[in-house]
Each structure stands twice: as C-alpha cells, then as structure tokens.
Design goal:
About 15% of the residues lie in helices and about 40% in strands. By secondary structure, it is of the alpha+beta class. It has two domains: about 110 residues, 2-Layer Sandwich (Alpha-Beta Plaits); about 50 residues, SH3 type barrels, CATH 2.30.30. The strands form three sheets. A five-stranded antiparallel beta sheet has the order 10-9-8-7-11, with no helix packed on it. The protein has a four-stranded antiparallel beta sheet with strand order 2-5-1-6, with helices on one face. A two-stranded antiparallel ribbon has the order 3-4. The radius of gyration is 19 Å and the shape is globular. It starts with 9 loop residues before the first strand and ends with a strand. One of its GO terms (biological process) is transcription antitermination. It holds the Pfam family NusG. One of its GO terms (cellular component) is cytosol.
Amino acid sequence: MAETVTSAEKRWYVLHTYSGYENKVKTNLEQRTSSMNMDDYIFRVVVPEEEEHEQKNGKEKIEMKKTFPGYVLVEMVMTDQSWFVVRNTPGVTGFVGSHGAGSKPAPLLPEEVANVLHSMGMSTRHNDVEFDVGEPVTIIDGAFTGMHGKVTAVDKEKMKLKVVTEMFDREVTAELDFDQVDKL
C-alpha cells in the first residue's frame, strides 16, 4: 500500500558524520535518495557553511567555513525505510537526538532550522513551491507583512522573489524569500 506524504510530516534532522566528510555525505545521500527511489521521503541535504573573509598578502580571500563541522542537516519524512537509507549512507555515524538501539531521532525545532537556513541565505520552504512573474502574493513576514503585491522576478536557485507592492501611493520593490510570501 502506497503511503501519502504531507508537508506536515517533513522534518529536519541532524546527522553526525566524520569531520571533513560533510560534503561527501551530502553527495552520497543525494545519490542514494535518487537511486533508491526515496525522493518522496528525503528532500534536502544541507551542509551548514558561512563565508569567511581573510586577508593574505594584502589580498582578501573568501573561504567557505563549516558552521557545524561533523554535522549535516537533512529534510525528510521519518519512516523505517528512509531512516535506514540515511543511517546507512557511507560517512554517516548516526542521527543526533537518537538514543541508539534503532530509536528514531527527535527533529529540529522549526525556529532552529529557520535560523540556520536564513544565516546561509536559504529559504525554509522546499523548491516545490512555484511562483510565476505577475502572480499576486501576500507578504507574511518582514517589513511589508500584510501587504499584497505582484511577483516581478523569480530566482528559483536562491529561492528569492522580487515583489512590487504599493506604499504611500508609490510602487516599492522588495526582495523576499519564498517563505516570506503566500500565494493569493
């Protein structure tokens, strides 16, 4: 019998990995998700990183530094099969918040996930949300909360929108994350 997945069942979990293998785990897990037909249960794999600016020989050098070395975030629906696929991915040593003996881990709180993803310039929404230029939206977060507008540009990769709204009888353009707006 096929299981139906609702977005309410999607949660973020933290994986513990060997330090230095975070990107390899991400690649391995994405490949396993695809090859084992788990796309409906395992959605996004994120290695939390931040830009670090460094001065060397008078030149500025920008490097990506792991925010949490040895950890990877995964957005998934926790089932026995998805747990097994993730847990047995090469380089994964376990789930954070699991008490061993096959117990399922506790998911991250939504505000914890939002803080990490926003610090990386990412949206908490998955890219299965589609926005079109010209589409009317309501702004649900930020300085323009409660205002209506129209989408003028969509950046699917960064999950950002440009929305034109009216304030004081003037058009104002705001750049917003996908999770800051709802479709009308």
